[in-house]
Amino acid sequence: MKIFVVNAGSSTLKYQVIDMSDESLVCKGICDRIGATDGSLGTITHKTPDGRIYENECEMPTHAEAFESVVYALTKSDAKVMDSFDEISAIGHRIVQGGSVFPESCILDDAAIDEVEKLGELAPLHNPAHVLAIRACLKTFGDKIPQVGVFDTAFHQTMPKRTYMYALPYKYYREYGVRKYGAHGTSHKYVSDRLAAMLGKDKKDMKIITCHLGSGCSISAIKDGVCFDTSMGFTPLDGFMMGTRTGTLDPSVLTYIAEKENLTPADINRICNKESGVLGISELTNDNRDLVNAAEEGNEQAALALEMQRYQIVKFIGSYVAAMNGVDAIVFTAGIGENNPQLRKDICKDLQFLGIEIDDEPNNKRGLEIRISTADSKVGVYVVPTNEELAIARETKEVISK
Ligand code: ADP
């Protein structure tokens, strides 16, 4: 069984085909500049694990044309991997916002597509693009291939009400659904499942803190096998500082700046989502590697950005230890979490009060599911590389098998 995994943005379409007989990658690719308004062509870059690459530029006014390019790449190009798209058993879509409507993955029938579209109010950068891609799939492939929605928010739907409510007038929750929804749920679920499998334990018997540190960052507290709390909130802006996002702020800061500079809500959204975080502080870059290099060369703002981010990560982990009244395992994942051993070591040094000790040898290894704390460490610390596409493919397989 082959599953086609789609991660659609407003102008991009990332995809993978995964062979579920052994969960191997068949191919992956990206279409870029879909719907460009400056007259430029769309692009496709398609790669196979044996090193073949297909690249092309063509008209891509909508996601439907992008899918036609993908079908060509998969079935006809020099990097083809199958004779016909009929070999695909199902399409799994990553969907950022499922609100309270989608506590789990499901088949995307007309009613579900309408709900995903309505939830665009809560994720204006993402859900409208997902809907475009889902409808384009229907146009390109008809309804013979089932489409499944896998929601970033679903894993967090188990949070108790006291952790997901904001202390605003209740009517905003009642009327507009204003509450914490979280994000990166597919990754937090995947790495915590892998951890339990790695240890041969039942997830229900562990208190786990998963740290997804990438361009976007979030930390989750997992208790009794389910999500208890998570750092991202109503939108993926909340939590601690990220590449370009602020994380938690005193909201008065925003009303103050808005008055000073005559800013609109759209300006505030742009500043907080795209111009802040480590980029805002360093005035240099949102890229962790570049920041580390700049800090080593004496750039004080780069060093400050890294110190602030690390401090906020430690604070979140500490607060979740308190929230769960303990922790058995801490897991690092995603671009920074998997690739920056020094940061992991520094964070854990600040958590020494928990009896954590890092073992340098495993901590310096890359790309492995591995315990990086010593055998004596009171809390197990692990690196588990995330694989959101595989997680989506697994969910998709499960939904269509029901
Ligand atoms: P996203 O999927 O959210 O775009 P990723 O999980 O790919 O993000 O993480 C991107 C971040 O990971 C960037 O800040 C990048 O600098 C960082 N990163 C990637 N490789 C390394 C590395 N070898 N060392 C340190 N940071 C790295």
Structure description:
The structure is a single chain. The protein has 402 residues and is α/β, with parallel strands linked by helices. The protein folds into two domains: 2-151, 2-Layer Sandwich (Nucleotidyltransferase, domain 5), CATH 3.30.420; 201-388, Nucleotidyltransferase, domain 5, CATH 3.30.420. The chain has helices spanning 63-75, 110-118, 127-141, 161-164, 170-176, 185-199, 251-261, 265-274, 277-282, 288-296, 300-324, 334-339, 341-349, 360-363, 388-401, and strands at residues 2-8, 13-19, 24-32, 42-47, 53-58, 88-95, 106-107, 147-151, 208-213, 217-223, 226-230, 329-333, 370-371, 380-383. Helix 2 (110-118) runs antiparallel to helix 3 and helix 10 (288-296) packs across helix 11. The structure holds adenosine-5'-diphosphate (ADP).
- What gap, in angstroms, lies between the N and C termini? 15 Å
Beta strand %:
15-25%
Can you count the beta strands? 14
The main β sheet shows up as: 8 strands, mixed
- Number of folding domains? 2
CATH topology tier name of the largest domain: Nucleotidyltransferase, domain 5
Helix content: 25-40%
From the helix content, strand content and strand pairing, which structural class follows? Answer: alpha/beta
State the strand order across the main sheet: 5-4-3-2-1-6-8-7
